[in-house]
Amino acid sequence: MTNLTDIFPWSDNFKTGISRIDEQHHRLVDLINMLANHLAHQSDIQTLNSIFTELSEYAAYHFRTEEAIWAQYFQQDKLETEHKKVHLSFIDAINELKNEENTQTPEQIIADILSFLTHWLAYHILDNDMNMAKIVCYIQSGLSLEQAKNQAKQEMSGAMKVLIETILSMYDNLSNRTLHLMKEIIERQRAEAKLRLAANVFENTLDTICITDAKANIVDLNPMFCQSCNLSREDLLGRNLNTLKSGFEDHDFSSDLWNTVDSKGHWCGEIQNRKASGELETEWLTLSSVRDEQGAITNYVGVFSNVSQLFQRQNKLEFIANHDALTGLPNRFLLADRLDLAIAHAERSREIFAVCYLDLDGFKPINDRFGHAAGDHLLREIAKRFKSVVRGNDTVARVGGDEFVIVLRDMKAPEDYKVTLDRLLAEVSLPVSIGNEAVYVTTSIGVAICPDNGSDSESLLKLADQAMYSAKDSGKSRYHFAQALG
User: CA of 41: how far to CAs of 1, 2, 30, 179, in Å?
Assistant: First the structure.
């Protein structure tokens, strides 16, 4: 901590004339001021206790030093005995204040101890220690103990007594007022620091921030808001937020948004806004209302966070989780979802759809001869051919090494699928170039019809798989329909 403020300023008036005692008094004053500064700065209680412990230990050391000096001159005199009692009373008073932990906060206890210390130390130095030191000085000049006591008593009475009481009162008031003022200054400095930090965040954040009046007209904004609108600050001030962000153009959406902010105090969610370049971007808007003491809305604060990249990353992760890494086709997880949707649609519309299980004929010899890279190339090429044959609302999925499932939707009768199935067989049988060679594969297809062969995905896949093996057993490069349920 720098820039310490003295609530108990040291003065040469505190000097007793005995250098060792004066040095220790000065150190006690320094520790009191250090404790006061940490209290004003609201340091943690562990720090405050640490400084207080150091102060208490040094005070005990100082008392021993003083008593050793007085013992050389007072020889069990009543004055020495009373001085020792003053030291003991100081320790008792500190312990009594410390024991108030159950009724007061630690900070309040430290504050009470600090007030006691400043008053007690000033009184002890100016009255007790100063009197004892004067007696010692007179003894050192050749007077007897009694003569020295009488001489010191004369000096410490009258105007000196009034001066001591005046200085004590002044220090008592000064220390309390200084500590209170220090706390006020520190609180103001902290508040100003928070405002500077908030202003710095407002000016330099990558989020787009604006503040509007109760009618959504902009009264303040940060540089990023200007950049997002491609307009200057002067051009934007006074403009209505609803006219600056295209996401507010949907009347129903905008109306619900503002109603929520007015009733609940805030709204947050996705909003699609068009950039100055014309490109749409996804932003996360947090819109909050600010109310006065009567509860009336005076301002709105809008924070627009660009989350386009976040959503792109999320979409990419979702794609990876639901698609085959080699071909980019849906995997088993997405296929199961597509089948459930197709079954639900078929139940509502009373239409039929086909689940086709496909296995390539002759793939393993090609993979073994040319290697896995060539096999992967072949699978990607076959996947493209499958997609070129089916329609946009159909699904092509890879479920195994050279196994695929195709869901053909919205047909009126099983015969309607035969044209598509014949095209699939024809496309797969065309040659595939691997290096300088042309290789050939075919496919065997098993077909299960919903609801004729079942109305759940597991049954349909199982029957289509069985029908695919029947197609292979019948000579390959053909399709076979599963038998309808009796």
Answer: 9, 11, 17, 10
Residue 212, number of CB atoms within 10 A of its CB:
21
State how far the alpha carbon of 315 is from the alpha carbons of 37, 320, 401, in Å. Answer: 55, 9, 26
Q: Which of 382, 372, 396 is nearest to 443 (CA)?
A: 382
- List the end-to-end C-alpha distance of the chain, in Å, as a whole number: 90
Confidence at 470, pLDDT banded by 50, 70, 90: very high
**Regarding beta strands 442-450 and 479-481, do their DSSP bridges make them parallel or antiparallel, or are they unpaired?**
parallel
- Sign (positive/negative) of CA torsion 228, 229, 235, 237? negative
Strand partners, 408: 354
Q: Is the peptide bond before 451 cis (omega within 30 degrees of 0)?
A: yes
Q: Where does residue 295 fall: left (phi above 0), alpha (psi -120 to 50 degrees), or beta otherwise? A: left
Where do we find the tokens 């640490």?
A: 50
- Give the pair of three-digit tokens for residue 196: 């500077």
Indicate the SS3 state at residue 128.
Answer: helix
The first and second tokens of residue 50, run together, are: 């640490």
Q: How far apart are CA 469 and CA 453, in angstroms?
A: 17
Distances (CA, A) of 63 to 23, 57, 133: 13, 10, 14
Q: What is the per-residue pLDDT across 109-151, written as a single tens digit (0 to 9) for each?
A: 666 666 777 777 777 777 788 888 888 888 888 888 888 888 8
The 8 Å CB, 24+ separation contacts for 397-400 are 397/324, 397/329, 397/330, 397/331, 397/332, 397/334, 397/335, 397/338, 398/324, 398/326, 398/327, 398/329, 398/330, 398/331, 399/331, 399/332, 399/335
* pLDDT of 159 over the 50 cut: no
> Tell me, what DSSP letter sits at residue 97?
H
444 bridge partner residues: 359
Most distant pair of Cα atoms in the chain: their distance: 137
Residue type, 484: A
